[in-house]
Structure formats: C-alpha cells, structure tokens
C-alpha cells in the first residue's frame, strides 16, 4: 500500500474528504455569521444554538410528524428564519447603534436559553437521524470510496455559499443591502425599506445555520450540545477570513476544514487546536483577517 510520510494513502484520502465535509459546515455557518455581522453589525453568538435547532427540528419532524429529510431541508431553515425575524424585531433592532458587546451578550443569553430548552425536553443524549435512501451507498472513485451523503453535503454547501455570494456581491438586491449597511438614512431616502431588509437579512443568516444543522443531522448524533461544541471553531473561521467578508468565510471555512482533517492524519494531538493556532498567526500578521478590509 502506498504511503506518504508513513501514512497510508487511503487514510489520507479519507481524512481529506472528512475535512472537506467539516469545512463545508464551517463555510455555511461562518457565511451566516458574516452576513449578519457585515449587514447588521451584530456578533450573533446564538448562531450555534440555531444550527442545533435546525437539526433538532429535522429530527422532530421525522419523529413526530413523519416529515422526511428533503422536506425538512426546506422547512427547518424557514422555521428558524422566522424565529430569527422575531428575535430581530423584538430585541436586536434596539442594539444597532450600541457597542458590539451588547449584541454579543444578548445573543449569548439567547443561545443559553435555546440550548437549555432542548436540554430540558430531550436531555443531552444524541438522537440518531437516518441518511435518506437516495443518498445511501458510495461512489467508487478508483482510489477510494466516496460516501454519497458526504458528496451531497459538499455539493449542497458549496451551492448555497456561491449563490449567497453572487446575490450579495453581484446583484441589485445585494447592492441595496450593502448601501443600507453603510448609509441607512440615505438608502431610506431613496424609498428602500431598510428595516425590512435588515429583518430579512437576519432571518436569512440564521436560516443558513439551520440549513447546516439539517445537513449535519444524518452525519452526526443530534444533541442540544452540538451547537456549542462547534460555534467557537466557526467564530475562529470568521476571524481568520475577515469579519463580515462573504468570500473570506467560504474560502477559509473550506480551507481550515481541510487543514484540520490533514492534521488528524499527521499530528492528531494538534487537530483540536490547529484552527486557533492559525487564527493567532493570521491576527498577528493581518488583524483584519485574510479577506477583511483594514480600517
């Protein structure tokens, strides 16, 4: 069997693929955070809890209502997006002119409340969620077997990320959003409903988190703790890419996922900290992040 630095090539391919899958989750989650921070200037610490809520809603839809994976891939993000809209209207809209710390503390409190609610209802034990029948099995690539569900996660995540980037950076709607962020008074004077755009932006951002949660449901054990275990890494990804940078979140999420996967092969002891080491190095060299704009 071929080896690279004493590591079997099959193990290397397997961890590379796992790194791409994790990187896909990082990319979608950090994209949602970047959209919310870039457009609303809010550090949304509730993002991990809403990611978990998306996965839990998918499980609840299957368990109690018999609603399958494909429907929940649409319904769960919409439901969480509506919850996000309610949060923005009732709480966050009063904080936009205040320091970032207020938004962070509020969303941190919301994260604890959402996580606590699901812990009270279902405990902390993981709930299984089966892979949809259409995505069972694997593709034979010759040099490795690629599970169909992992391929779907990568494809779906990249598609959502690229469509979001295109809409925000290349369309008139995206131009309105950027204008509303930089000069809301002037944008409002042109007849654009800025509060509505802000409300829908937050709903869309947390909807992305729920979409990632549904994608993750068949790939992991669904637990009320799954969001808190992931959100710190995702914040590190956002910082490395540049706070508010859409392209930075996508590229950095995928890249750091791959690096983390390769680290598990060559130096497993560092796999849980490599993302934070890279974050520290990037902040020393470029405090605004790789794709962030220096002020």
Key terms for this structure?
two-stranded antiparallel sheet, 11 helices, ABC transporter involved in vitamin B12 uptake, BtuC, 295 residues, mainly alpha
Task: Write a brief structural summary.
It is built from eleven helices and four strands; from the N terminus they run E-E-H-H-H-H-E-E-H-H-H-H-H-H-H. With 295 residues, the chain is mainly α.
Structural summary, described in words:
- The protein contains 11 helices and 4 strands, in the order ββααααββααααααα.
- The protein is mostly helical and 295 residues long.
- The protein has one domain: Orthogonal Bundle (ABC transporter involved in vitamin B12 uptake, BtuC), CATH 1.10.3470.
- A two-stranded antiparallel ribbon has the order 1-2. It has a two-stranded antiparallel ribbon with strand order 3-4.
- Helix 2 crosses helix 3 and helix 2 runs parallel beside helix 4.
- 43% of the residues are buried.
Task: Outline the secondary-structure elements.
Elements: E1 3-4, E2 7-8, H1 9-40, H2 47-65, H3 69-90, H4 100-122, E3 138-140, E4 145-147, H5 148-170, H6 172-182, H7 184-189, H8 194-216, H9 226-241, H10 246-266, H11 274-285
Antiparallel strand pairs: 1-2, 3-4
Into which percent range does the helicity of residues fall?
over 70%
> Which fold name is given in CATH as the topology?
ABC transporter involved in vitamin B12 uptake, BtuC
Strand content: under 5%
Query: Main β-sheet: number of strands, strand sense, barrel status?
Result: 2 strands, antiparallel
What CATH architecture do you see? Orthogonal Bundle
Query: How many helices in DSSP terms?
Result: 11
Write down the secondary-structure element order: EEHHHHEEHHHHHHH
Low-confidence runs: none
Derived structural class = mainly alpha
Residue-averaged pLDDT: 86
Whole-number tally of structural domains: 1
Shape: globular
Please identify the top-level CATH class.
Mainly Alpha
| Radius of gyration over C-alpha positions, nearest whole angstrom | 19 Å
- How far apart, in Å, are the first and last alpha carbons? 52 Å
| Count of strand segments | 4
Strand order of the largest sheet: 1-2
């Amino acid at each position: 069997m071929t080896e690279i630095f004493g590591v079997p090539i099959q193990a290397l391919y397997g961890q590379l693929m796992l790194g791409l899958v994790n990187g896909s989750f990082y990319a979608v989650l950090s994209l949602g955070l970047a959209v919310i921070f870039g457009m609303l200037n809010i550090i949304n610490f509730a993002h991990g809890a809403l990611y978990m809520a998306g996965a839990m809603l998918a499980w609840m839809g299957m368990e109690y209502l018999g609603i399958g994976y494909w429907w929940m891939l649409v319904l769960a993000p919409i439901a969480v997006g509506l919850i996000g809209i309610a949060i923005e209207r009732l709480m966050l809209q009063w904080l936009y002119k205040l320091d970032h710390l207020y938004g962070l503390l509020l969303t941190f409190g919301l994260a604890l409340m959402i996580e606590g609610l699901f812990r009270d209802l279902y405990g902390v034990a993981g709930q299984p969620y089966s892979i949809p029948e259409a995505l069972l099995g694997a593709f034979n690539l010759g040099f490795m077997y690629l599970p169909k569900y992992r391929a779907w996660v990568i494809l779906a995540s990249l598609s959502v990320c690229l469509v979001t980037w295109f809409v925000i950076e290349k369309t008139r709607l995206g131009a309105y959003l950027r204008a509303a962020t930089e000069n809301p008074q002037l944008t409002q004077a042109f007849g654009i409903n800025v509060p509505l755009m802000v409300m829908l932006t937050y709903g869309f951002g947390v909807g992305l988190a729920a979409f990632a949660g549904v994608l993750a449901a068949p790939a992991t054990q669904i637990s009320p703790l799954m969001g808190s275990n992931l959100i710190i890494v995702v914040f590190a990804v956002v910082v490395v890419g540049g706070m508010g940078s859409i392209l930075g979140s996508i590229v950095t999420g995928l890249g750091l996922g791959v690096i983390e996967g390769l680290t598990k092969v060559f130096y497993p002891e560092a796999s849980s900290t490599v993302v934070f080491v890279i974050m520290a190095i990037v902040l020393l060299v470029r405090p605004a992040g790789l794709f962030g704009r220096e002020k």
